[in-house]
Write a structure and sequence with these properties.
mainly alpha, 14 helices, 0% strand, antiporter activity, MATE_fam, xenobiotic transmembrane transporter activity, transport, MATE_MdtK
């Protein structure tokens, strides 16, 4: 007879896995935060360029991350069922799939300047952003490989190692940024190019360290995910691709909404774009806690499916949802009550544009307190759906919510209705709210009922 965990036990299991994963997301995210902060110290034009380039980079990064994220539920389900061979196949061919993806999208980075100009960005801003993106196109390779290894290690519940290795990589990136952007310790002053080069070097070293760890612990050695890695396994490649493509497109739909918002802010002005970037960085930092819980939900749901524990699937889902709701309410209170000090951290105290950017950014961060709640709701539901390998319908829900509702709302509220940046962000809130409701209904109202029907 299956032993069912209590709600407290489920909560503890989610936290033990989710908090280190959230910490690793924060450490990885800090790479971009450090880029934004140091470029803000370097100059407002460079800050705006990194914000613009960052929206483009993460649009591509998270689309490829769909294939890496497919590895997580596949390995979790196989490992819980004792199928080491299948777990190895998923992880190994995940590396193949993301490598192919990086090769496919590299020309977009190499041709960034004319593409950005064609999208209506100012020539000077497009030129600076392209200097960053050309280097980041090559940085995408080790970044994607790290994502796959994180998915594998998460699924086998080695979250603490992920956290420590990611922190070390982020610290190395910060040190290299300091040296290469400003030209300290005899290094050339490379400005925005130095920022991208630091990320490339740090990620190459971080991948090498994570690869060594994946082969080191005794319990991981049987997986041997790098054994005969040069040999293609076409069925496994197709499994990763077919599960990961809807995940990637779902992520693309959401991140594309935020990227489109960034382009709209570029139409308003440099100060507004910089303020948008800063407010989004702060809001994203707290969102990463929910992303860590979402990853834990994916792993726990995948393991429940692998062992046939239907009640455990429901109870674990309830535990992670309650945790996420509590965290989102706390973050909302902080954003609404004290926005200015957080925005000010990203700007040089002597910058003449500092006060204007803080004023704009503080208003946006107060709005972030509202969409923090609905954003958390949609990412948790999405993580649960991925854990049971339900990705195609969530992809359609995301496309409708973000592009059919959120993007038009942002444009109409921001420009025809004259609300400016605040209107653009209210559009984001509306799109995320629709996604949260529909994703939650898909899991709780449809999939869990199907699971109960199967059990009966």
């Amino acid at each position: 007879m299956t032993h069912h965990l209590s709600f407290k036990d489920h909560t503890k299991a989610v936290l033990l896995l989710g908090l280190p994963l959230a910490g690793s997301h924060l450490a990885q995210f800090s790479v971009n935060v450090v880029d934004v902060i140091m470029m803000g110290w370097y100059g407002v034009d460079e800050l705006a360029a990194v914000v613009l380039a960052g929206t483009v980079y993460f649009l591509v990064f998270l689309m490829g991350g769909g294939f890496a994220n497919a590895v997580m539920p596949m390995v979790a389900e196989a490992a819980s069922a004792g199928d080491i061979t299948q777990a190895r196949r998923a992880a190994r061919m995940g590396l193949w799939v993301v490598t192919g993806y990086c090769i496919l999208v590299l020309p977009l980075f190499l041709l960034a300047e004319p593409i950005l100009q064609a999208l209506g960005q100012k020539p000077e801003l497009a030129m600076l952003a392209a200097q960053y993106l050309v280097i980041m196109g090559f940085q995408l390779f080790p970044a994607m490989w790290i994502m796959v290894l994180k998915g594998f290690l998460s699924a086998v519940e080695h979250a603490r190692a992920i956290l420590l290795l990611t922190i070390a990589t982020a610290a190395l990136n910060a040190a290299l940024n300091y040296v290469l952007i400003f030209g300290h310790f005899g290094a050339p002053e490379l400005g925005i190019k130095g920022c991208a080069l630091a990320s490339l070097i740090a990620n190459l070293i971080g991948f090498a360290a994570m690869m060594v760890y994946a082969m080191w612990p005794k319990d991981l050695r049987p997986y041997a995910i790098f054994a005969r890695i040069w040999r293609p396994d076409w069925p496994a490649i197709w499994s990763v691709f077919s599960l990961g493509l809807p995940i990637g497109l779902t992520m693309l739909a959401e991140v594309g909404l935020f990227s489109a918002a960034g382009f709209m802010f570029g139409w308003i002005g440099v100060q507004d774009l910089a303020a948008h970037g800063i407010a989004l960085q702060i809001a994203s930092a707290t969102f990463l806690f929910h992303l860590g819980l979402s990853n834990a939900a994916t792993v726990r749901a995948g393991r429940a499916v692998g062992t046939g524990d239907r009640q455990g699937l429901r109870d674990g889902a309830l535990a992670v949802t309650v945790l996420s709701v509590a965290l989102s309410v706390l973050a909302a209170v902080v954003f609404i009550t004290t926005p200015e000090p957080f925005v000010g951290l990203f700007l040089d105290p002597d910058d003449p544009e500092r006060d204007a950017i803080i004023l704009i950014g503080a208003g946006l961060l107060m709005l972030a307190g509202v969409f923090q709640i609905v954003d958390a709701g949609q990412v948790i539901a999405m993580g649960l759906l991925r854990g049971i390998k339900d990705t195609k319908v969530p992809m359609l829900i995301a496309a409708f919510s973000y592009w059919g509702v959120g993007l038009p709302a942002s444009y109409v509220l921001g420009f025809p209705m004259g609300l400016g940046g605040a209107g653009i962000w209210w559009g984001l809130v509306i799109g995320l709210a629709v996604a949260a409701v529909l994703m939650s209904w898909r899991f709780w109202g449809v999939k869990l009922r199907e699971e109960r029907a199967v059990q009966v």
